[in-house]
Structures are given as structure tokens and as C-alpha cells.
Amino acid sequence: MNILWINKIKDTESWRTTQIELTKSLRKRGHNVVLIMEKNIGEKKAKNYDNVTYIPTIPHTFLSGFIFGLITAFYFPLIVRKRNTDLIMIDGTSIWLPFVIPLKLLRIPIILDIRTLPINQKSLISFDLPLYLSKYIMNGLTTITPELEDILVKKYGIRNKKIGIWPSGVSMENFIKSNTNNDIAQKLDSKKFVIIHHGSHGCDRGIENLIESIAELDSSLRKKTKLLLVGVPENNIEKYSELCKKIGVTEQVEILPFVEYKKIPAYIKSSDVGIIPLAPDKEFWKVSVPLKTLEYFGSGKPIIATSIPFHQRLFKKGKCGILIDSDSPKALSDAITYMYENKDKLDEMGLTGKEIVKSYYTWDRIACDIENFFKNFMVNT
């Protein structure tokens, strides 16, 4: 199957891992996937991502989107014809659908992919418009969780479209082949009980509460604990550092800036527990599948996780850590204490998580599921 997958997304954005890895897995299954991403003019493309076609734009919030949209409207139809495209998938959170109308004229099935909800009211209009238009432009839709599917159907009336669900996944080979990096392990101090959080740090991800939870620990445990925050954006480093100083946990919290994705497995393997402190009462997180959750499992590490629906489904499959109902500093502190006091069970919990990922959430498994959806979609379209 020849698939054109259009995303206005850059190499610097953490969530491009999903597009990169799924594209690789679909190609391994014999599909020809043209993955489109954005790159500022003069900007170097990321290494090891040769399976990506980059569209040059300029570093401007509005104009970059406008330029990308024009290219979608006038250039991509030529690509579609040249490559005998069978199916077009559009990232519905980054591409304005009015620019997609010329693609619709080619009479090739178009699928809208929605993987998140708007973070705030400001972004709501740009999100709502594509969803309302999708009823008239799109042939089908894919999304990330049953919870988000339910919202899309009820709020936007997308009832007569074929809908597929595919969550995040993990390339197990990235974690199986990666051994603990000795330099990282020595730096972290093997005598410490290391809690790791890596990835994005915006969008109300509970990082401040996580830092404050270290101050809530019993003084003796606090001295034995290290919280490792990996991949913190420059604009947040100072904010987190000031909070650490204010509550007196500077020695217990290590803040690292952006780290190459290929190094992440070594940091996870050098830690004891992964943590995902997302606010369980926020709709934005109730519909999500945190990639880091699966990456912790891929490294055989247990997790401390807040009780969003996806985490609830994981814990029904096995005891893979501890699930908490609140992202408050006290709840997080109690969870860290529990994990420390049950250190003898961490390996078993981590192995359970690893087996869950291997059975349900590898990118190869996800690629198989979405391939089946595509085949059924094409037959019935």
C-alpha cells in the first residue's frame, strides 16, 4: 500500500517519535510510506531519519503554517499522482483542513488522525474547525484511545465515518540492545534510589508537584533519593531550579536539558523507577497514552503512575508498579516511599510491565493493527 502521511511537525518536537517509529514498522511490513514533516529553511535534518521528506518553511507561528498549507494544497497533489498513492493520512491537529480540499479532488481516501485535545481555550478554535470540516472532507478517522474516540463522536458528530484506534508504542530493540551506560550510572550514583521523568515538560505535566514531593519525603529517605528530570526545555530549567532552591531539594533533584532520544534508554536503565505524574482529573490527559510509560516498561522498570484510563488498563493486565489517584505532592511522596520500601519487588514489577509492552504495545504490533484497519477501510470505501 502506498501511503502519504502529512504532519506539520519538526525534528525538535518530542511527539515526532510516534510518526517516525510507526513509519519504520509499516515499511517493514512492505508498505511504501512517505512521511512528511516540517523543517525551517537552513535547518539541518535530524540524523538517522532518512525515511522522512521535509518541507521547508520559516520560523514563524502563523506564516509557517500558511506556507505548509499552500504546499499541501498545490504540491502534494503532484506527489500523490507521481507515487500512485492509495491512502492519505493527515495530522488533524497541525494541518488546517481548508488546505486539504485539493487533495480531496483526487478521489483518494483521506484519513484524519487526531491524537490529542486542545490544551487551552486559545487553541480550541483551530482544533474545532478541522473536526467540524472533517465530516465533509475526510473518509475516515484514527485516534489514540477509546476515550478520545467517544469525545470525537459525541461532540463533533463524527458518527458515519470509519474510526480506528492506535495507541503509542515502543521499539523494543532500542531498549533490549541498550545497556546501562557506565558514565551515566556513575554520574547518578548507584547508591541512590533514582526516580526518572523524561520527555516533555509543558502542558501541566505535574513536574512542580513532583519536585515538591521530594521535599515531602521522610528526611532519611530524602537523602537516599535522586529525582532525575531529563529533557527539560531551557525556558523551564531556571523555573525548576528556583523551585528546588526554595524548598531545599537542590541536591536531590538533577535537571538535564534536551538529550538525544537514542540515549534515553541508558538513562532509564540507570534508574530504579519511572514516574508519570499527569493530573488524572484533566480531560487532556484522560484521553492520552504517554509514550514514556511504555518506554519505562521497555527498559524493564516499574512505574509510579497517576490513574488516567490508559494506566488503569495497563494495571488490569498486571502489577507493574503503583497506581495513584492524585498528582498531589503528598500522593507522589507516598508512592515513592512505597516503591523504596518494596525494592525487592521492583524487578518483578518491571518484568511484568515489559511483558505487557511486548504483548500489546510494540510498534510492530501497532503497525499490524493499523494495517488491518487500512485494509478494511480500503475494501469498504
Concise overview:
By secondary structure, this protein is an alpha/beta fold.
Written description of the protein model:
This protein is of the alpha/beta class and 381 residues long. The protein has two domains: 2-169 and 362-380, Glycogen Phosphorylase B (Rossmann fold, 3-Layer(aba) Sandwich), CATH 3.40.50.2000; 172-360, Rossmann fold. Helix content is 47%, strand content 17%. It is built from 18 helices and 13 strands. Helix 5 links the parallel strand 5 and strand 6. Helix 1 (16-28) packs across helix 18, helix 9 packs across helix 16 and helix 14 (291-298) packs across helix 17 (346-360).
Task: Give the tags.
2 domains, Rossmann fold, seven-stranded parallel β-sheet, 18 helices, 381 residues, globular, alpha/beta, six-stranded parallel β-sheet
Q: What is the CATH superfamily label of the largest domain?
A: Glycogen Phosphorylase B
Overall average residue pLDDT: 86
Q: End-to-end span in angstroms?
A: 15 Å
**Total count of domains:** 2
Specify the biggest β-sheet. 7 strands, parallel
Strand fraction equals 15-25%
Structural class: alpha/beta
Based on DSSP secondary structure assignment, what is the total number of beta strands? 13
CATH class of the largest domain: Alpha Beta
**CATH architecture label name of the largest domain:** 3-Layer(aba) Sandwich
Low-confidence stretches are none
Count the helices. How many?
18
Q: Looking across the biggest beta sheet, what order are the strands in?
A: 3-2-1-4-5-6-7
Helix share of residues?
Answer: 40-55%
Shape, principal axes of CA atoms:
globular
Question: Whole-number radius of gyration?
Answer: 21 Å
From the 3D structure, determine the CATH topology of the largest domain. Answer: Rossmann fold
